[in-house]
Design a protein that fits this description.
It comes from Massilia aerilata. By secondary structure, this protein is an alpha/beta fold. The protein is about 40% helix and about 20% strand. The radius of gyration is 20 Å and the shape is elongated.
Length: about 230
C-alpha cells in the first residue's frame, strides 16, 4: 500500500488533503512543523513526501536539503503559494519531483501524485482501459457512449463523467468529497447537495428502467457502482 508523508502547517488543509488521499487507498502520515516532518522523513520509508515550502521553524527547502544529505531518496512534491519561476526552479534543482502552486484542486494534486508514483514504479499501470463493462452496463470513454442491455443511456456530460468515475472504481465506495472534487472540481462543503442531485438524476436513467440496480448508496460513506446478488 502506498505510504505518503504530508507536511503542512495549516490543519484544515492538511486534514482535507489527507482525507482525500486516504479515500484513494493511500496511507498518510501528517506532520505540521518542519522539524516533525524532517524526523518522519529520516526515520520512516515513504513512497512520496508532500512538503509545504513555508513551514514554521524549518521550511520545505531545508527539509529536502537535509534529507538528501542524509541519502534519503524519497520522491518529493512541493506545495507552495510562491509562484515565482525561481522558486519552482529552486525546488526542482534541490531534487524535488514536482512543484504545485497553491491554490490547486485536489484532482490536480492526485494526478501529480500518481505520475510520480508511476515514475518510481510504485503506482498503478500507466495506461488505463477505455472501455468498461459491469453486468449489462457498457461504457466507452472514447466514443462517450454508455448502454444498458444494449440500450443507449442519454447522459449529460456531468452524468457521464460521474458514471465513468464510478465504473473505473467499481466495487469501491466513493465519498462525496472525491466525487465533488473530481467531477465538479470543487471542494466539498456539507451544505452543497450537487452530488446527491446528480446521483439521483443518474440513477433515474441508469437503474430505474431496469430490474437489476447497479448504483448503491452506502449510508454515511458515499456511493458505489456494483452488481449485487
Amino acid at each position: 500500500m502506498t505510504k505518503i508523508l504530508l507536511v503542512e502547517d495549516q490543519p484544515t488543509a492538511a486534514a482535507y488533503l489527507a482525507q482525500g488521499l486516504n479515500e484513494e487507498g493511500m496511507v498518510v502520515d501528517v506532520a505540521h512543523t518542519g522539524p516533525d516532518g524532517l524526523h518522519q522523513l529520516l526515520t520512516v520509508d515513504y513512497d512520496l513526501a508532500i512538503l509545504d515550502v513555508m513551514l514554521p521553524v524549518l521550511d520545505g527547502w531545508a527539509i529536502l536539503e537535509t534529507a538528501r544529505r542524509a541519502r534519503r531518496t524519497t520522491p518529493v512534491l512541493f506545495l507552495s503559494a510562491r509562484d515565482q519561476v525561481e522558486d519552482r526552479v529552486r525546488g526542482l534543482e534541490l531534487g524535488a519531483e514536482d512543484y504545485l502552486v497553491k491554490p490547486f484542486a485536489f484532482s490536480e494534486l492526485l494526478a501529480r501524485v500518481r505520475v510520480i508514483l508511476r515514475r518510481n514504479d510504485r503506482g498503478a499501470a500507466a495506461h488505463e482501459p477505455t472501455t468498461f463493462e459491469l453486468a449489462d452496463l457498457s461504457l466507452d470513454l472514447l466514443r462517450h457512449r454508455a448502454t444498458r442491455n444494449g440500450e443507449r443511456l442519454d447522459l449529460t456530460p456531468k452524468e457521464f463523467a460521474l458514471l465513468s468515475l464510478l465504473i473505473r472504481r467499481a466495487g469501491e465506495v466513493q465519498s462525496r468529497t472525491i466525487l465533488a472534487d473530481q467531477v465538479w472540481d470543487m471542494n466539498f462543503e456539507s451544505e452543497t447537495n450537487v452530488v446527491e442531485v446528480a446521483i439521483r438524476r443518474l440513477r433515474t436513467k441508469l437503474d430505474d428502467p431496469y430490474p437489476v440496480k447497479l448504483l448503491h448508496t452506502v449510508r454515511g460513506v458515499g456511493y458505489v457502482l456494483e452488481a449485487r446478488d
